[in-house]
């Protein structure tokens, strides 16, 4: 039995189901009628690096160790991560060792390319097609580029949109999808394979950049701009629907087709970026230059409130780096670590405790003092209210030990905040002097470009021989897919995987008893390759453009 996996980064049933029902996505509708489908739980923090790694290893981030595209050092600096930093054997390594032929294309967190029984083209964490170990065999990418032109790893939507070239961004994304489809079909037809996986990141990119044009509840929604650009996200779901149809028509009748996403999608809001300011208002985070920051905040908020959209865009064009520098200054500049007990990274709903001996300038004692601070934060975070509606905006607050397990759990933030997804969130109500103008500034947030963000539930579809028809699954997790694929291909499942086999998707009466093995003999950590300084800067700029870095 061959298995084909189509990964759609950021795809959400919140859009697919109504559009399929309206007849706009006929191939998705076919899979709903004739296959198994359902919401797929992501990893707790909903971050792509963690989610794709949990998919390929069947393990939670507490075991494989990748919680983000980067990790914080004890010196409060950032170290970028790649696939080679994970602990855990990938699905394609297990399949290769069992003699199966694999093709893996554009999956995030796969750099450097592993030596497999088949082909690998790495994904988002690679510096670029010219980088070392971008593909396996190494010459594969050169052969691909001779036939299909320079490989488009990321189309660069954010940069084009930030410069006002929305039409150019749409055109570049179409070009990237078309190229990946041609390459995918070429590899499917020209190479023998038992397992094939390709990831299209286009839905993630377009939803990050165009959500505010489609969603009338978004704080940055503009009816006139929506009239021009409100259809763009739907257009790309239609384009991906065509891709689904093309792949279904290319695979054989005995193949099993699986489709999944690493997380869902929805509106982006500024609350993530205001956690440091909230911590400061509670006296848990202090700045050395508070007076200067307060003045800068007042000026910034006044400009944000009083300046027209056209003038803001003119300022951005004339001084493209100024806003980023102001954001960084407001969020991180002048932070007094010797007087700071808790802090956030300024982009995501995480809180770190500044613990003695763990961080270089830690001030919170481990044990009783640490636990008391965690309880205080959990209690108060649950009471956060919206800047405009005054409604509570936090659905849950987790300690890391409540959502992760394994020997890498110490790499996780101490606290994760789960925002409500059933109401619009305009920002955190913070009782500080900054609120007198227009509320806290938004470090790291650029609504000119990034207006959509990740949600907890992605998608899962299964279709093919011995797969049930028209059944909606309840409760599948992204960690379940690798055990399920191993089971589909009649291979044993390592017992240290956290996922389970989705046995409820198979036809009744078919004997599919999973086989487990104590452990694999393969090394837990793949071969590692360090980024050069130039490659690290390339990764930094790409992640910043995608909204993953300040």
Write the layout of secondary structure elements.
Blueprint: E1 3-8, H1 13-21, H2 26-34, E2 36-41, H3 48-57, H4 61-64, E3 70-72, E4 78-80, H5 91-97, E5 102-107, E6 118-122, E7 135-136, H6 140-148, H7 157-162, H8 166-190, E8 195-200, H9 202-214, H10 223-229, H11 232-250, E9 256-260, E10 264-267, H12 275-281, H13 290-306, H14 309-318, H15 322-331, E11 342-343, E12 350-353, H16 368-381, E13 394-399, H17 400-403, E14 415-419, E15 452-455, E16 457-464, E17 471-472, H18 481-488, E18 493-494, E19 516-517, H19 533-545
Parallel strand pairs: 1-8, 1-9, 2-17, 5-6, 5-8, 18-19
Antiparallel strand pairs: 2-16, 3-4, 6-7, 9-16, 10-15, 11-12, 12-14, 13-14
Helix pairs in contact: 1-2, 8-11, 9-10, 9-11
Any overview of this molecule?
Mean pLDDT is 88; it is low at 433-444. The strands form 5 sheets. The chain has a 9-stranded mixed beta sheet with strand order 7-6-5-8-1-9-16-2-17, with helices on both faces. A 4-stranded antiparallel beta sheet has the order 11-12-14-13. With 550 residues, the protein is an alpha/beta fold. Helix content is 37%, strand content 15%. The longest helix has 25 residues, at 166-190. It contains 19 helices and 19 strands. It has 2 domains: 3-267 and 454-545, Alkaline Phosphatase, subunit A, CATH 3.40.720; 270-444, no CATH class.
């Amino acid at each position: 039995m061959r298995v084909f996996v189509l990964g759609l980064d950021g795809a959400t049933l919140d859009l697919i189901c109504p559009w399929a029902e309206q007849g706009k996505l006929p191939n998705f509708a076919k899979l709903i009628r004739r296959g198994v489908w359902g919401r797929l739980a992501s990893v707790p923090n909903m971050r792509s690096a963690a989610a794709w790694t949990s998919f390929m290893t069947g393990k939670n981030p507490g075991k494989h160790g990748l919680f983000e595209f980067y990790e914080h050092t004890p010196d409060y600096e950032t170290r970028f991560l790649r696939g080679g930093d994970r602990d855990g054997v990938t699905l394609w390594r297990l399949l290769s060792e069992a003699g199966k032929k694999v093709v893996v294309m554009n999956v995030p967190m796969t750099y450097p390319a592993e030596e497999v029984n088949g082909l690998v083209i790495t994904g988002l964490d690679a510096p670029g097609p010219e980088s070392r170990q971008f593909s396996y065999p190494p010459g594969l990418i050169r052969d691909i580029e001779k036939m299909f032109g320079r490989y488009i790893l990321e189309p660069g939507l954010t940069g084009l949109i930030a410069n006002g070239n929305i039409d150019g961004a749409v055109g570049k994304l179409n070009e990237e999808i078309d190229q990946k489809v041609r390459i995918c079909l070429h590899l499917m037809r020209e190479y023998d394979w038992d397992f094939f996986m390709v990831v299209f990141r286009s839905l993630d990119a377009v939803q990050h950049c165009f959500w505010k044009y489609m969603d009338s509840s978004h704080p940055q929604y503009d009816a006139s701009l929506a009239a021009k650009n409100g259809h763009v996200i739907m257009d790309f779901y239609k384009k991906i629907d065509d891709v689904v149809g093309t792949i279904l028509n290319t695979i054989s009748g005995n193949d099993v087709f699986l489709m999944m996403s690493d997380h869902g999608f929805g509106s982006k809001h500024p609350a993530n970026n205001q956690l440091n300011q909230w911590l400061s208002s509670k006296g848990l985070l202090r700045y050395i230059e508070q007076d200067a920051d307060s003045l800068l905040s007042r000026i910034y908020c006044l400009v944000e409130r009083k300046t027209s959209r056209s003038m803001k865009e003119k300022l951005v064009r004339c001084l493209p780096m100024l806003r980023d520098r102001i954001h960084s200054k407001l969020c991180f500049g002048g932070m007094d670590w010797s007087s700071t007990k808790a802090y956030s990274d300024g982009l995501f709903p995480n809180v770190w405790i500044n613990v003695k001996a763990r961080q270089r300038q830690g001030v919170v004692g481990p044990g009783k003092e640490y636990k008391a601070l965690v309880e205080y934060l959990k209690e108060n975070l649950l009471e956060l209210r919206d800047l405009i509606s005054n409604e509570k905006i936090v659905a849950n607050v987790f300690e890391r030990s409540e959502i992760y397990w394994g020997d890498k759990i110490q790499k996780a933030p101490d606290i994760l905040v789960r925002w409500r997804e059933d109401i619009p969130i305009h920002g955190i109500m913070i009782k500080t002097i900054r609120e007198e103008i227009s509320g806290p500034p938004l470090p790291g947030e650029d609504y000119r470009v990034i207006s959509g963000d990740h949600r907890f539930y992605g998608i899962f579809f299964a279709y093919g021989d011995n797969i049930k028809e028209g059944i909606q699954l309840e409760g599948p997790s992204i960690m379940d897919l690798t055990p399920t694929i191993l089971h589909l291909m009649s291979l044993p499942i390592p017992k240290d995987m956290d996922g389970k086999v989705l046995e409820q998707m198979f036809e009744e009466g078919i004997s599919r008893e999973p086989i487990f093995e104590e452990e694999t003999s393969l090394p837990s950590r793949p071969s590692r390759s360090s980024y050069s300084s130039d490659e690290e800067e390339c990764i930094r700029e790409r992640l910043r453009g995608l909204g993953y870095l300040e």
